[in-house]
Amino acid sequence: MGRMRWGGLLALGMILAACTTPAGPPAPAPPAPAAAGQTTGEAACSQVKRMKVGVSVTPPNVVHTPPYVARDLGLFARRCLDIEIVEFEGGLSATNLTAVAQGQTIASIGAAPIAAGLRARQFWGMAPRLPQAYVVAPEIKTAADLKGKRLSAAGGGVGSFNWVMGREVLKTAGLTVDDVQFVSQGTAGRLPGLVTGQIDGVALHPEDVYLAQQQRPGVNILVQLSDLLPEYFFNAYGAAEELIQRDRDLVRNLGAALIEANRTIYRERERVLPIMVEATKKEPAAVAFAYDYLTRNCIWSVNTGLSRERTEWTIQNAIDNGDIKPEQRPTYEQVVDLALAEEALALAGGPVTLGNCAD
């Protein structure tokens, strides 16, 4: 299998329409006029600003649900935002990157597309740590057993997140992508592909690990990806530089609402679980299992979620794997708009620590 070609992916993406799928009902109506003593964020809206917010998976996994929480609990509306949530087949897909590049959507972006020329900056780390486990068929006991097997490349084929994670697992046994067969599939096909035996290895989110072990007894967790790649930066949201320059207030207010959504998730389990069940279309027990795993392991951020160390480690990992050319190495400042992130954090009330979680 070839290496990722971000330049080609962006070039292809820019000639495609940003094909997105609306998700769920429209945003709540803007709040009523503010009473005396209310904060600016709760004040009446002199202008409602509209924007699309992308989610990297369709249907979303539990970890990807903060935008739904922000929408359904009125956190976007409280900041005078009318948000349409759209779902993509992978955060590294051409449609996701195109939508961000064109300034029509705020969504997950990584350092590799930025290095390849995507003029966008991250401003909120939704989930710094990897939430997935690499799950394999019952007969596979070690990474070496993956040789000759079929592994998932869900969400975009070569260069997709699942392809990248499969490559990392193979490296632990001295194997390469040429030693296996990667199967391109939609993100919704990851769980049924493993359960039916169409694939032998796949990175699964906690709720799908729960379901896989119920539906196909004997499937193994080969490794928790956060143990394999503890410094890997999983998911950060970004916006086109042109959009940030044109409407910094919109992006800052959106960032504040998303920070508030993550904090609400940690604080109000029973309030947010029904929203997550509706968004993911998964069994309530599986969603509750995932929620408990994600909050216990501080997968969701509670502040900006951004980290120079994680970002720079992830950039170096991409260079080592040939996903970023050494001469195109981006600086942290080229990837992250830290000032914008800190403005959003201040608007959300400043930094907090919730339990052991402080990112």
Structure overview:
There is one protein chain. With 359 residues, this protein is α/β, with parallel strands linked by helices. It has two domains: 6-129 and 232-347, Periplasmic binding protein-like II (D-Maltodextrin-Binding Protein, domain 2), CATH 3.40.190; 133-228, Periplasmic binding protein-like II (D-Maltodextrin-Binding Protein, domain 2, 3-Layer(aba) Sandwich), CATH 3.40.190.10. It is 40% helix and 15% strand. It is built from 16 helices and eleven strands. The strands form three sheets. Strands 1-3-2-4-11-5 form a six-stranded mixed sheet. It has a three-stranded antiparallel sheet with strand order 9-6-10. A two-stranded parallel sheet has the order 7-8. Helix 1 (6-14) packs across helix 4. The radius of gyration is 20 Å and the shape is globular. Mean pLDDT is 89; it is low at 1-42.
Tell me briefly what this model is.
This protein is 40% helix and 15% strand. It has 359 residues and is an alpha/beta fold. It folds into two domains: 240 residues, D-Maltodextrin-Binding Protein, domain 2; 96 residues, Periplasmic binding protein-like II (D-Maltodextrin-Binding Protein, domain 2).
